[in-house]
Amino acid sequence: MNSKFNLKKLQFMAICFIFTLSAAIFITTPAGAENDAGISGSSAEIHLHYDKSLRGKKIGFVPLALGSPLMGSWDYSMRKEAKECGMIYKVKDPNWNSQASAQAVAAFIAEGVDILVVHNMNMQLLAKLLKKAEKRGIFVFQINMVSNTKTSAFVGADWYTMGLRQAKRVIKNCGKGTGRSGKVAIMQGELTSAANIEQVEAIMSVFKKHPEIKVVSSQACNWNSNIEHDNMATILKQNPDLSATIGIWGISHLGAAQAVKEAGMTEQVFVCTSGGGSSQICDAIDSGLIDSYFNYQSLLQGHDLMTTAKFLLQSGLKPGQVKMAIYSPIIEVTKTNASYACFTYPFPKEMQDALNIDYPLLPIPGK
Questions:
Q1: Pairing of strands 115-118, 153-156
Q2: Which of 260, 280, 295 is the last residue in one of the domains?
């Protein structure tokens, strides 16, 4: 009796051992992977696909110009995340030069990058080159301002919605029943840029429904704060009862805001603008230079660019097979939330140090 019981017990233990061993082999060795990375379970298979899809892939960035908080934050986010996943990141800075911008894009196409991120000066300049890039098998992302050629992804602000919100905010402060003149000055950027075209179109569509609002000036300032300052100084002399000014980009609109301050009209003129959310603007809000600022959070835009890149490189899709938009969440910044709604720029040492970390990359089986 005991011998039979012991035999059955040994058989049961053997079956348990075999089952446990089989389960361990199944869990730790996903299909097609030797598990050299030391990750167990289904995570190994996911990580292997992620690494093989991204490691060594090249991403090229062509901004309008580095040195501003907006484009610097995109560069920072992409540079850091590319390094974390083993991608090769390069940037070519045209420094506001249209010819240099086209040359930079052409150079990245010739280099055969896998992802090309461009910030368009206007809707036409890079249109043919972007089409050429996707035909060459390069995913093209357009950040904040589109061209006439629509590519795999647009990541950026919804400019039409931005313009609607700005116009409604100005009407709330300067429209019917406020006791103000309703006179508004619009400080445009580059007249042929998508951001400018869409934002101004939206602003004017709202103002047309409010006859008490009178646009006394709407000029191109080419994203230049000095031009905005000088134009605003002239406008204020011609319209001493001005009620509000709307700027397309906060950094350049600081010039207009400064002119309002110099004229002693800060309490009278409502200053409304938009931008990527640098501390320079929040400081201006705290000091009373700017009243309303629509922040599309440029550091998060850089993250969205990299998330889109990671998705498409893992998806199996080819350039040209998909066209998507990732619109940035917008928050209005006023004195009530200016203390925490912006990012520090220039970047603090801790953020700069993060770019130099030697991120550990797990080995890919077979390499």
A1: unpaired
A2: 295
Q: What is the pLDDT of residue 364?
A: 85
Q: Are residues 205 and 307 in the same domain?
A: no
* Residue where a domain terminates, one of 286, 306, 322: 322
Please give the Cα distance from 362 to 69 (Å, whole number).
33
How much is the pLDDT for 17?
Answer: 36
Structure tokens, 190: 């580059």
**CATH at residue 249:** 3.40.50.2300
DSSP string, 21-34: HHHHHHHH--TT--
Structural domains in the chain (count): 2
The verdict on 216 and 247 lying in the same domain is: yes
pTM to 2 decimal places:
0.88
| Burial of 347 (C-beta count, 10 Å sphere; 0-12/13-18/19+) | middle
Contact (CB, 8 A) for 298 and 69: yes
Read off the pLDDT of residues 314-330 as tens digits, 9 standing for 90 and up: 999 999 999 999 999 99
Query: What does the pLDDT read at residue 31?
Result: 41
| Boundaries of domain holding 242 | 159-295
Please report, as a single letter, which amino acid is at residue 131. Answer: K
Q: Which two tokens stand for residue 280?
A: 């320079």
Q: Chunked in runs of 10, what are the mean pLDDT values of the chain (367 residues)? A: 45 39 35 51 89 97 96 98 98 98 98 98 97 98 97 98 98 96 98 97 98 97 98 98 98 98 98 98 98 98 98 97 97 97 96 95 82
The rounded distance, in Å, linking the Cα atoms of 219 and 204 is: 14
H/E element holding 156? strand 153-156
Same domain, 164 and 275: yes
Q: Tell me the β-bridge partners of 358.
A: none
Q: Is residue 33 part of a domain?
A: no
